[in-house]
TrEMBL record:
Residues 50-79 form the Zn(2)-C6 fungal-type domain. Residues 28-42 have a biased composition (Polar residues). This is Zn(2)-C6 fungal-type domain-containing protein. InterPro entries: Notoamide_regulator, Zn2-C6_fun-type_DNA-bd_sf, Zn2Cys6_DnaBD. Keywords: Coiled coil, DNA-binding, Nucleus, Transcription, Transcription regulation. Residues 88-115 form a coiled coil. Residues 16-43 are annotated as: Disordered. GO terms for molecular function: DNA binding; DNA-binding transcription factor activity, RNA polymerase II-specific; zinc ion binding.
Amino acid sequence: MKTHIWSFFSVKMPPRDSKGSRMLFTQAPDSTSHQTEGTPSTRAKKATTACQACQKRKSKCVGGEPCEPCQKANTECVINADNDGRRRITLKRKIESLEQDRNLFERLVEGIRNDEERQVPEILNMIRSNVSLDEIRLYLTESQSTSHSHNVPMKSPTSSSKRFMDVRRISDIPLYEVPSQPWTSVTTDGSFVSHLVSHYFTWQHSTLNWIDRDLFLADMRVGKLDSRFCSPLLVNIILACACFYSDYPEVFAKPDDPSTRGEHFLEEAMRHLAMEEDRLRLTTLQAWGDIYTIACIMGKDRLGSQYLVRIADCIGQVMNNRQRMISEANEQAPEMARSIDIAIFGLFSQYSVAILNLQKGATVNRPTTLKYFPEIHDPDDIWTPYPRQGEPIAAHTNCLKNGLFDQGLIMWEICDYLFGDENNTRVDPEIINTFHQRFESWAEKLPQCIKLGYASTPGVMEMHMRYHNAILVMFGFVTPITKEGESTTKDRIKSLRTSSARHIGTMLSQFRSLWPMECMPMTAMRYATVALFALFEDLDDVQNQRALTDIVITLRALARRWQFAKGLLRLVQLTTLKQDTSLPDGTVSMLRDLPSSSREAQT
């Protein structure tokens, strides 16, 4: 018989006989026999749980051990304390069970948030297969222990702090093996530099392409400082940009300070830039493109605007000196010609979308003498989602360059019309409609391989976001001056803008479902913000509400990593407060409680 916890009851133990044994009760005591005259009666205390015998008989148990019914039936009286919901030990076990469930929930969320390549699909399959929570918990525990068994400390050549390798780092095989020396003094770790270079040419280069990758890598591997297609300036600024795509601890200039991501490489790049002494070099023009990009990533828009002016100046110089630069390349003249054209195509395309979003007129002439790249489909022209071990897909690099360049030409003309003439205070809706028709014609004439949905790469997806971003911006200048009587035009413009905004939201969601969030193109964050402002104009539509909430979720997730995204969210936050905009449920709290960086916390 299980011993009961007697302190919880006021029932007296049965007396012992002369041998010290308990005497069984054969007759229930008279409830009034112990009550003296004049003593008020007390209510019998109710049992907190019935004994096992009473539970079987389905009779009322009055408590005590043995209880009154068991005494009458002369049966063994056993009370299971674990079934008592008011007992401390039972409550403790319930709390422990709830804590285990909470821990399981947090681990599931963390696993999905980190987007482990193999773990998440397996977890989802287990959930859909109706396995028990204990089995899921066991799977997570075993996966975690396997990962921890590979966490081996190593000495870092870039820092005195210890570097820990997880299972992803052990299995990390860079796409491009390159040396660290003699290109940078920040690190001597060639594997780390190869990791960053692979990140850059996987994610940033696929959307912002102004470097001939093969020529750059070939010269970097040779290691000659006087190379035509590689320089310490270009290498360090590439490494600085790539730090924003990597989770290695060496990407921080100060250990464990995310706000210093890439700053050590940036500082070295700027030192090399100061030593250029206005020399006209192709690598300097290419570096300016990435200097502008990293300024935007760090949320330094004003500085970025100044860099755009310098980019325009460099583009003009290279275009004017193109033939001389090609002839000076001697035996590498064909390679120099191709590399210059790639730089002009890519930087002009980026310059056009940048000044459109900044609402500035063009300060560089429209290129007219460049030849389009041959739209061949080389089987070696592939894109792989590094560092994931996914299947490579066709990149269609030349088709994408040509498509972006044609798109940039239209944007250049839009900027020239809207912002080129300070005296132009009246925007003609017909001219904007003409630009829209040209964009529609551009989209229809795109090769099938770079139309949205055809095994799209990040570059293809970003190009289509640029298109919808341009629709939002240019029609935004028509809406305020439309007369009240022109309801048809006004409704059409609203429909075009909200449709483009929702398309941007859809593409952001597609990117999020296919690839890591931290690899989102920098330009996509600005497109997302423009889309949000368009959606604010018509939040009565349920589709617009959903699109807005989804875009805010994306920007908020990116704000944990990118200062640029955080600044854009603050702009949206201030605008909604100023305009007293009524936002969908859940969106208000996401805009109110923005994540802050360690640097902001110190100021």
